[in-house]
UniProtKB/TrEMBL annotation:
Pfam families: VWA_2 (PF13519). Residues 26-205 form the VWFA domain. This is Ca-activated chloride channel family protein. It comes from Mesorhizobium robiniae. InterPro entries: VWF_A, vWFA_dom_sf.
């Protein structure tokens, strides 16, 4: 299988170099991302072979070549409109194209005719020289006519060609897309199996190279100059990957005789170059949560271009409360990755570089929590939604149903599980204070306890994932405002005494004034003075009304 992947890469590279080097200034590569790419060759999905081949090819493409990347069938299963120019043609785009190919989902149809036409238009083929390279493992499935399109583009283009790689097509199938290349003066390469690829390579490189020019007379050796830098390290996520020059750091330490870290010297960032004095060093390369270190022995007159491989990948998490919902900015994302003792916590959309291995990701939104284990290989990018499955509740208390909203101090809400425990109590789930209190809750049955000063009411409710609720709890209460001139304490009691002749105290204040919300009913108010004298009055509270009482 490895031989086949190398053959695909070599064939695509020779085709690419022939096209880029001789005919075109700007190129768009189109990759078939339809669902058929999940089919296997020798036990390996074709999409993985294509990704690996592209990564190998792109490492050898000159940095000044303007390359774009387009894909179809990677976002929607049944759409003929699912065509996207992911990377516009530009110099130095090899890394972006590799990353785009690695992140594709393969699930849709094959609108290859429309894709080639859109790529030609993006390259302004009627104005400038342009080349489109199509890699497809299937035939047109969206009623396009690739043969007719080839003639149309050739007639209108300045110097336009389409090269087609038929990946896993039969000979008869290949004829149906080869006309697209033939009608534009391009090439069709059959890549059905390893042997066919090898034959294509032999045919491509059969022409003998031009004889090499006579070597020029050797110039006298230039005087040896001391290099400006003697330490120029490079860090990559995975073996063979592009160098990382942004967001990374370098920590430099002196090395102890036993190889451990000694004195800390400096921390540098990005592309690092330095002149280190001769000696032994420990150099630590970091990017996000990934790190690796090496011992470097520096000798006078030598230049060191050390390669640091993090063996890491990139994980992108979008935490959502429910399917189709926006990302929850306040969501906590906790990632337990290989080698970590204290897992880091991120919030909202999360993008982090992590050591390769199984990543245990826990996302919490309100009282909802979900955990997934995500395998991450070195050099790969995984972009994933994690759905917690909660409903959103906004709670407010009203003095009466349809009456005034309670919006002062002393407002609180507690959420309990509706189902009682064996001892008759309920499990408290969450609490909040103030009007417009917000809760994110997993699907279940609950009871909401609302408190406004001394008035308490409860209301049952249920939660469904993705559902938004505005709970309005009528507490059947009014407001009592008490004035007691000269009082040191004001206390409110239930009017009715118990069997022992005692009344239940509801609340008090050490002041001459006291205001509180109370459930509708009768109450006794006692004011006390510093000389221990007291006065008592009674009052009736009506729901939704304000009562004012003066106790003298």
């Amino acid at each position: 299988m490895a031989g086949l992947a190398r053959s695909v890469a070599a064939a695509a590279f020779l085709l690419w170099m022939t096209t880029l080097g001789l005919a075109a200034d700007r190129v768009i590569l189109i990759l078939d991302a339809s669902g058929s790419m999940w089919a296997q060759i020798d036990g390996k999905p074709k999409l993985e072979i294509a990704r690996e081949s592209l990564r190998t090819v792109l490492q050898s493409v000159p940095a000044d070549k303007e390359i774009g990347f387009m894909a179809y069938g990677h976002r929607e299963k049944g759409s003929c409109e699912d065509i996207e120019l992911i990377v516009p043609p530009q110099a130095g785009s090899a890394g972006a194209v590799s990353a785009a190919a690695d992140s594709l989902k393969f699930l849709g149809k094959t609108p290859l005719t429309s894709a080639v036409k859109q790529a030609a238009e993006a390259l302004k083929y009627t104005e400038d020289k342009a080349t489109v390279i199509l890699i497809t493992d299937g035939l047109e499935t969206c009623n396009g006519d690739p043969c007719a399109l080839g003639k149309e583009l050739k007639a209108a283009g300045v110097d336009f060609t389409v090269d087609v790689v038929g990946f896993g097509l039969t000979a008869d199938e290949g004829k149906q897309v080869a006309c697209l290349a033939d009608n534009t003066g391009g090439k069709y390469i059959q890549a059905s199996d390893e042997q066919a690829l090898q034959n294509a390579l032999v045919e491509t490189i059969a022409a003998a190279p031009a004889p090499a020019p006579e070597p020029a007379p050797a110039a006298p050796p230039a005087p040896e100059e001391k290099p400006e830098f003697n330490f120029m390290p490079t860090v990559v996520l995975a073996q063979g990957g592009d160098p990382v020059t942004d967001g990374n750091s370098w920590e430099i330490y002196k090395a102890n005789s036993d190889g451990t870290r000694g004195d800390y010297l400096t921390t540098e960032y990005g592309a690092y170059k330095s002149n280190l004095e001769p000696g032994d060093y420990i150099v630590v390369a970091r990017l996000s949560e990934a790190r690796t270190e090496q011992k470097i022995v520096v000798e006078a007159g030598q230049v060191y271009k050390s390669l640091f491989t993090l063996n890491a990948g990139t994980l992108i998490i979008h935490p959502r409360p429910s399917e189709g919902a926006d990302v929850a900015d306040g969501a906590a994302v906790v990632i337990v990755y290989p080698g970590v003792d204290t897992p880091p916590t991120y919030y909202g959309d999360t993008k982090v570089v992590l050591p390769a291995g199984d990543q245990k990701v826990t996302v919490r939104i309100g009282q909802g929590e979900v955990t997934e284990t995500i395998p991450l290989t070195a050099g790969r990018v995984i972009d994933k939604d994690i759905i917690v499955g909660v409903g959103h509740v906004v709670a407010n208390a009203y003095y009466t149903a349809g009456g005034d909203k309670a919006d002062g101090s002393g407002i609180g809400f507690k959420v309990f599980k509706a189902k009682k425990k064996i001892d008759g109590t309920r499990e408290e789930v969450a609490y909040a204070y103030g009007p417009d209190s917000k809760f994110d809750l997993p699907p279940d049955d609950y009871v909401l306890l609302a408190t406004v000063d001394l008035a308490v009411a409860e209301q049952p409710f249920s939660v469904k994932a993705g559902e938004n609720q505005d709970l309005k709890i009528p507490i059947n209460a009014g407001v009592l405002a008490i004035t007691a001139p000269g009082a040191s304490k004001i206390e409110i009691f239930e009017a009715k005494k118990d069997i022992n002749g005692n009344r239940k105290s509801l609340g008090y204040a050490y002041d001459e004034k006291y205001q509180a919300a109370l459930l509708a009913g009768d109450y006794a108010v006692v004011s006390e003075k510093l000389d221990n004298s007291s006065k008592e009055s009674t009052v009736t509270i009506k729901a939704g009304e304000r009562a004012e009482l003066t106790v003298r």
